[in-house]
Amino acid sequence: xxxxxxxxxxxxxxxxxxxxxxxxxxxxxxxxxxxxxxxxxxxxxxxxxxxxxxxxxxxxxxxxxxxxxxxxxxxxxxxxxxxxxxxxxxxxxxxxxxxxxxxxxxxxxxxxxxxxxxxxxxxxxxxxxxxxxxxxxxxxxxxxxxxxxxxxxxxxxxx
Length: 159
Description:
- It is a single chain.
- The chain has 159 residues and is mostly helical.
- It has one domain (11-149).
- The chain has helices at 21-35, 37-51, 53-73, 90-103, 107-117, 120-140, 146-149; strands spanning 12-15, 87-89.
């Protein structure tokens, strides 16, 4: 994935506090998944600790497959901001809105967003995965992902 300023998909379109809980969590979890093995483990711990082992692992599997398909069949690599950045880039906002829209059962709208992310023949597949993951986020009744709440925000951003 590219640095925020390397591509227009990284252009800041908002801040995490501007988005509803599901959208913001989807953005944060995307960052955690892509950042490092340690943050990926934190993602898994957060979901399994909140949803229970069974439901948590199903949510993790849906998200992992979603990210894998986006990486393999994406129109281009998704640009994301740093893990601790409070800004949200255009690609991240699209991804977060995609998850939230699918979670609300708005399948046709979610499919339209999916086509912006991946080849059209993959849109239906990732829409189902996004719905599964988004519903899990809603079940968490989250205000913010726990792993992020425990993380220090002492890092500086340059944008």
